[in-house]
Amino acid sequence: HTGFIAIVGRPNVGKSTLLNRLIGQKISIVSRKAQTTRHRITGIRTDADAQFVFVDTPGFQTKYKSALNDAMNRGVTTTLSDVDVVLFVIEASKFDARDIEVMKLLPKHRPVILVLNKADLLKDKGQLLPFIQRMSSQFAFHAIVPISAKKIMKVDVLIDAIKPLL
Ligand code: GDP
Ligand code: MG
């Protein structure tokens, strides 16, 4: 298997930390110059049975609402439709309006995995269940995976969820 994976989410949810965990020592290249048509490669993880090419989605902007950004965001939806898997990262305990803006840009015809990051900060893991139910009613996520990118909790579960989609 080999495929392209985009990691999206508002600032500070832990995307960079997660990318570092996912590629870890397995990084084969990170090049500013490595380009695909619509994406910039940020890292590649090579396992015995699969290769994961992580890419940036240029123009991703949720901070300001304007006609220009709306147009740019339509572009984002197109570029996100171009990858094999989208990881939509949110904080398990801090879902807010900015996350909803990002959610609107998720492609309808690609598998999107909802990553509930910073699960280590939850005092009560039982809080997750009603939240997961609410999120599932709003978007057809391929999977919902609680993790901690920082504490390296369940990151392998995420890899196992992505692999069959490549
Ligand atoms: P990005 O803006 O989405 O790329 O987020 P970063 O990867 O830069 O992370 C933002 C902050 O959240 C940093 O201080 C990270 O150390 C912290 N962080 C990321 N993942 C986790 C996690 O799983 N648990 C906790 N407690 N903090 C995290
Ligand atoms: Mg970052």
Number of continuous helical runs: 5
The shape is globular
| Percent range of helical residues | 25-40%
Main structural class = alpha/beta
The proportion of strand residues reads 15-25%
The CATH class assignment is Alpha Beta
CATH architecture: 3-Layer(aba) Sandwich
**Strand order in the largest sheet:** 2-3-1-4-5-6
Kindly, what is the distance between the CA atoms of the first and last residues, rounded to a whole number of angstroms?
5 Å
CATH topology: Rossmann fold
Q: Report the average pLDDT across residues.
A: 84
Order of helices and strands, N to C? EHEEHEHEHEH
CATH homologous superfamily assignment: P-loop containing nucleotide triphosphate hydrolases
DSSP strand tally: 6
Radius of gyration: 15 Å
Cofactors and ligands present? guanosine-5'-diphosphate, magnesium ion
Number of spatially distinct domains = 1
What does this structure look like?
By secondary structure, the protein is an alpha/beta fold. The chain has one domain (2-165): P-loop containing nucleotide triphosphate hydrolases (Rossmann fold), CATH 3.40.50. Helices cover 30% and strands 22% of the residues. It is built from five helices and six strands. It has helices at residues 15-23, 67-80, 97-103, 128-138, 155-162; strands spanning 2-8, 40-46, 51-56, 85-91, 112-117, 143-146. The chain has a six-stranded mixed sheet, sandwiched between helices. Strand 2 and strand 3 form a beta hairpin. The longest helix is centred in the middle third of the chain and has 14 residues, at 67-80. The protein is globular, with a radius of gyration of 15 Å. The model has no long low-confidence stretch (mean pLDDT 84). Residues 9, 11-17, 117-118, 120-121, 148-150 line the site of guanosine-5'-diphosphate. Magnesium ion is lined by residues 15-16.
